[in-house]
Amino acid sequence: MYQQVARVRHDEGMSKQPKYRQVADALRREIDNGTYAPGARLPSESELSARFDASRNTVRSGLNLLVTEGLISSSQGLGYEVRSHEVFVLNASRFENLDLPQNGDAYSTDVTAAGRRPHQTFRVELTTAPEYVAERLKVEAGDTAVLRFCHRFVDDVPWSTQATHYPEWLVTKGPRLTEPGDIAEGTTRYLASLGIEQIGYFDEIATRMPTPEEARLLEIGAGVPVLLWTRTGFSDERPIRCTITTFRGDLNRMNYEIGELSARSENEPQ
Amino acid sequence: MYQQVARVRHDEGMSKQPKYRQVADALRREIDNGTYAPGARLPSESELSARFDASRNTVRSGLNLLVTEGLISSSQGLGYEVRSHEVFVLNASRFENLDLPQNGDAYSTDVTAAGRRPHQTFRVELTTAPEYVAERLKVEAGDTAVLRFCHRFVDDVPWSTQATHYPEWLVTKGPRLTEPGDIAEGTTRYLASLGIEQIGYFDEIATRMPTPEEARLLEIGAGVPVLLWTRTGFSDERPIRCTITTFRGDLNRMNYEIGELSARSENEPQ
DNA sequence: TTGCTCAACTTGTTGGTACAAGCTGATGCA
DNA sequence: TGCATCAGCTTGTACCAACAAGTTGAGCAA
Fold first, then answer.
1. Separation between Cα atoms, residue A234 and residue A102, nearest integer Å
2. Closest approach of chain A CAs to the CA of B134, in angstroms?
3. Taking CB atoms and an 8 Å cutoff, what residues of chain B touch A253?
4. Cβ neighbours for A60, distance < 8 A, ≥ 6 positions apart
5. Which of A144, A231, B12, B141 could anchor a disulfide with B131, C-beta 3.0 to 4.6 Å?
């Protein structure tokens, strides 16, 4: 029916690579060198099938590799599109600066400063602390806590989700724990209203592939990892909040400044 | 030959999900709840094919989803194995502490302290600075630079690669730029020998899917993202080195401490 | 016992087919 | 003109078949 042997013979070391990888490599090269620019559509499967002299299944395997790598995305009826990725940089050591508390929401400020349009939805609820959060807040897993969940967009593109847990002892300090509006304005402001000062953060950064739920919220297909940022905030006595932010990995980068940066470092590399 | 219609009819809203997703979801659930523990082998494709009453191709599509999510890996002749992921935590704000320069290689120290066995290979060469690095070192792209490339293992598992670029002006300060051995011992020590002190860092963190080359070096299959850590070190005058570390995303996590952490925070959540 | 071969498993690759389902523009009716 | 329909494109899902190639263990030969 088909014979692989004869073909491999004359391939002369240039590629023992299987055909579907050759397809992926060729297309990846063309995406890299700009033959297919971000936003552009790739030729259809049947066209590629003809070009590479491969079956539709084989071409699909190759395209699937590129989807997995996050280079392209597909939609039924439309075709394959080259993904664009303008990254948004978050300076985590300056963010919510300890000395200069932001007047308002730090996220909105940052996005607006970058000339882009922020948009976010809130949800505040009473819940129990999951184990991961409880460890960090130094409470028992299952203890009640207040969760402030936040879904953020930049120019109407889903950007990140943020879940902040406050321990029970903290929210009962305030007179109005049943009013979600208090927390909605932002963590720093809320804590200030309770007379609590954050004096330090413990940040943890990890990456992994999104869960199906995350993929849905952030509208990312297979092949785009998420960047997980867990920030535990401390008062002079104990942890006062734990914020887990889930970023689209292809659209975000984080920065930290440590120690002194020389004078000329003001204009950081973009 | 086969008819999808009849089956969908009686599925009763419980799942409009395509069959290959049902396979993936079922297996994912069983991996999560421990039916298949890390390191365990999944049933073979043909067994799963019988269990789910699906063709081998359909089962493969489902398994491929889990590979993409990084939950399992496959090897020809062996089968599918549930991946284990013990994460290794790197405290980036304490790492190469500015006040207390490490006596020796910081990586080896950290890994040994965690009760695991470090192993690394070096390569030092004279090269030109790629654009990304040149921007950070404030030199022209294409300028000569010294590259120290480092391939690191923990318990013989590939862990990370590290590429440190030093600008030309710096290496010519030392009398012996042709001796690769000097840099091999580590950045901090090398800089000290040149009488240069690092007073600050600029760290950038990003994530993405690995390039084929990275996947080869780190021995990660599709579905495992990499964590990119770029550290630019500064003297009191200017950037003196740029280190790009590529971690396996499934095995590493980074920490930063900012400001003051309360007394009880010494025992950080693992 | 040792060591080799080989059968019988495993996944990997590639081809084929058929139909479902989403999108778009042309066509034609009101 | 306006709108509904539909043909013809696209990708998505599902099946089948065949052979390549890696791994393992049984079993035979030295």
1. 18
2. 10
3. 204-206
4. A45
5. B141
The verdict on A46 and A73 lying in the same domain is: yes
Q: Please indicate, yes or no, whether residues B203 and B99 belong to a single structural domain of this protein.
A: yes
Global confidence as pTM? 0.80
Among candidate residues A132, A234, A135, A138, the one with its CA nearest the CA of residue A187: A234
End-to-end Cα, chain B, rounded Å? 55
The answer on A110 and A74 residing in a single domain is no
* Cβ count near A29 (within 10 Å): 10
Q: Please tell me chain A's helix, strand, coil percentages from 3-state DSSP, rounded to the nearest 5.
A: 30, 30, 40
Q: Which nucleotides of C are covered by protein (CB under 7 A)?
A: 9-24
Best mean pLDDT range from B11-15, B54-58, B185-189: B54-58
User: Could you tell me if A197 and A188 are in contact, meaning their C-beta atoms sit under 8 angstroms apart?
Assistant: no
Q: To which residue do tokens 């409470």 refer? A: A139
pLDDT (0 to 100) of residue A174: 57
The better pLDDT of the pair A153, A42 is held by A42
Q: Which of A38-42, A109-113, B16-20, B194-198 bottoms out in mean pLDDT, i.e. has the lowest?
A: B194-198
- The whole domain housing B35 covers 4-82
Q: Are residues A61 and A109 located together in one domain of the fold? A: no
Residues found in chain B = 270
Structural domain ending residue among the three candidates A82, A115, A143: A82
Does residue A175 have a pLDDT over 80? no
Same domain, A69 and A125: no
At A184-228, the pLDDT tens digits run 556 666 666 677 778 888 999 999 888 777 887 887 766 788 999
- Answer yes or no: do A96 and A181 share one domain: yes
CA of B77: nearest nucleotide by C1' is: C10
A151 and A174 inside one domain: yes
Number of domains in chain A: 2
Q: Å from B84 to nearest chain A CA? A: 13
Are residues B95 and B196 both part of a single domain?
yes
- The per-residue b/e assignment along B150-173, b for 16 or more CB within 10 angstroms, e otherwise, is bbbbbeeebbbbbbbbbbbebbee
CA A153, chain centre distance (Å): 11
Please give the C-alpha separations between residue A76 and each of A37, A186, B22, B79, in angstroms, as whole numbers.
Answer: 20, 40, 20, 32
Select the residue of A136, A199, A207 nearest B207 (Cβ to Cβ). A207
Picking from A63, A82, A101, the residue at the C-terminal end of a domain is A82
